[in-house]
Amino acid sequence: MVRAIVCASAMLTVPLSSLGRAQPDDDYYLSIPYSNAIYRLDLETGALALFVDHLLMPFYGEWLEGHLYLPDRLLGVVLKIDAQGNSTLLSSGGLLTSPVTLAFDSAGDLFASDYWTHRIVRIDRSSGAQSLFADAQSGLLNGPGGIAFAPDGFLYVGNYIANTIVRFDPSGNGELFFDGAGHLQQPGGLRVDGCGNLFVANFLDNDILRVRISDRVPSRFAESDLMRSPDDLKLSHHGGLITVTSETSAMFRINARGETLILHRDESLGGWFGVASPADHPHCSGSMTPYGAGTAGSGGVVPELRGIFSPCPGAEVGIELDEALGGAGGFLLWGISADQSAAFGGTLLVSLSPPFGFLPVFHPGSGAGGGRLVALLDIPADNALVGAEIYFQDLVLDPGAVKGVAMSNGLHVVIGQ
Fold first, then answer.
1. Is residue 330 part of a domain?
2. 3-state class of 24 per DSSP?
3. Where on the phi/psi map is residue 90: left (φ > 0), alpha (ψ -120 to 50), or beta?
4. Mean per-residue pLDDT for 92-119?
5. How far apart (Å, rounded) are the C-alpha atoms in residues 90 and 102?
6. How far is it, in rounded angstroms, from Cα 72 to Cα 92?
7. Between the chain's N and C termini, which has fewer beta carbons within 10 Å?
8. Burial of 147 (C-beta count, 10 Å sphere; 0-12/13-18/19+)
9. Which pTM does this prediction carry?
10. Neighbours of 362 (CB within 10 A)
């Protein structure tokens, strides 16, 4: 089901029971350094229960294959914790002094950012053996905090001190990806979706920043009055982002429109510095990829079509229609195969062979290139859809366009798992 909705920022608070689809694996595990513990949040009841204690400074953990892998920043160790809360020491000492964030690549290899020594360390999940992936000698690392892998295998690193984002290829060759001057203030958690978007928890600016990987263009994606000092950041398997705050001790879900929903808030235990769920897989193979060229409308502006979040069964993702004529109507064309047919003075990029359809849309805004909306796409929770493909194109009713129709690029959606 596709819902065409104006892109706007809002904050909503609803009972957890109204979210639906809650399962035991949907529980979230909160790192709370002031309580020296990990707490489990039951999404159905809203109950917080102690999961693991006797820690010093638990930080950004990551679930994989039934275990929570967790750095303790003050102890300089990485722990492996099973679903019952039984903890074992995976790795300590050596290259680790102050591990902040863990990340798994698509092969399941574990990486840790070490804040004080300005290193990225690879850790063998079986033996705990450490090896150096990158260090300060690269000239790129200065207080590395949040790290995240992209689907193409590149590792993105947020420098908490330098306010920059750097990236490394699988061989450890790095580059400055984004100079955060004027945009970043102590970047925390990072996430990369299957549509070419990098999301950053902007700790001091109290917002979530989005950087488009293709052109490195930044934009403020989400903010709210209570989302103060967001740190860890995860992509939810239900779609959207999950973040927690250290100042307001709250957990938020953020949808593709940038709207924030408070899932839970409790300041009695101290600030929240990490969030992880066994249901939130580090890598979803779903993707939304632009293809083809659109045709210009008023002012010579070509409408743009992009995706937000990774399409997987049971997820809600966004289709972003941007740079259309503000206030214009139009149609979001969809089909199950691509095309290259001449139509409306341009190129029709979606095949009209059945099944196909047109969804009426409206592009809020004003002026040439000033129209933008986000259509929310709910993907049914059916694993039989994995591998399914669908194609979209935005047709904007624009009197300044050839034959009155401006046409966007196409968007190729592949549902992953």
1. yes
2. helix
3. alpha
4. 96
5. 13
6. 10
7. N
8. buried
9. 0.93
10. 17
Overall number of domains in the chain: 2
Q: What is the separation of C-alpha 220 from the centre of its chain, rounded to a whole number of angstroms?
A: 13
What are residue 185's phi and psi, to 5 degrees? -135, 95
Rg of the chain over CA atoms, in angstroms? 22
Six-digit token string for 109? 């290899």
Poorest-pLDDT segment among 17-31, 81-95, 283-297, 327-341: 17-31
Domain range for 340 is: 287-414
Distances (CA, A) of 367 to 114, 118, 209, 327, 416: 48, 47, 26, 8, 37
Does residue 238 share a domain with residue 352? no
Residue 20 has pLDDT above 70, yes or no: no
Q: For residue 186, which phi and psi values (nearest 5 degrees)?
A: 60, 75
The secondary structure of residue 17, as a DSSP letter, is G
299 half-sphere exposure, CB direction, 13 A CA radius: 13
- CATH number of the domain where residue 61 is located: 2.120.10.30
Residue 236: count other Cβ atoms within 10 Å of its Cβ.
22
> What are residue 62's phi and psi, to 5 degrees?
-150, 130
Q: Per-residue b/e over 33-69, b at no fewer than 16 CB within 10 Å?
A: bebbbbbbbbbeeeebeebbeebebbbbbbbbeebbb
